[in-house]
Amino acid sequence: MLVKGDDMKKLEKLNAWFDVSFDSLELEVFAIAKFSKTIKYLLIIENSWPEWVDSRYFKVLDESVPIYWISNKYNFFFKLKNNKYDFSIPIRSYMGPPEFIENSEFLFDIYDNPSKAHEFSIKVIEKHKEK
User: Fold this and answer.
1) Half-sphere exposure for 33 (CA within 13 Å, toward CB)
2) Within the chain, how many helices (H) and strands (E) appear?
3) Alpha-carbon distance 60 to 39, whole Å?
4) How far apart are CA 72 and CA 95, in angstroms?
5) DSSP 76-90
6) One-character DSSP codes across 97-121
């Protein structure tokens, strides 16, 4: 799935990516999640850490998703919890590579240990590019 920045002013206010021109940047979506009422894309922008970014700031260029992606839907009041971290994540649905979804620590690492999340995500992305 490919997206391109649609609302540059809002996107740049919410995120501190300096020297990155979103109006010409096409980004690959590595996962999609619905948190409460907001759909977010997992993006890696200009070799930064993986980050969930609100889908409302992008237009979809190619809506096809890789054949190996899987999805999970959760109950309305479900909160993803992890013993390692001191917070929970209210998630409604999650779609992406099986390694992302089956590794419960990955979602928490995105917020609390971005370097570990980045290392893991790159391994998964490279693995699927080889196929």
Assistant:
1) 21
2) 4, 9
3) 13
4) 6
5) TT-EE--SSSS--EE
6) -HHHHH-HHHHHHHHH-HHHHHHHH
Boundaries of every domain in the chain: 2-130
Q: Are 36 and 92 contacting, i.e. CB atoms less than 8 angstroms apart? A: yes
Tell me the two tokens of residue 11: 């996107």
Q: Find out whether 35 and 49 touch, Cβ atoms under 8 Å.
A: no
Find tokens 């995120």 and name the residue.
15
What is the signed CA dihedral for 51, 55, 60, 66, rounded to 10 degrees? 50
CB atoms within 10 A of CB 44: 18
pLDDT tens-digit readout, 73-95: 877 666 666 666 666 677 888 89
Q: What is the pTM of this model?
A: 0.82
Do residues 69 and 96 lie in contact, with contact meaning Cβ atoms separated by under 8 Å?
yes
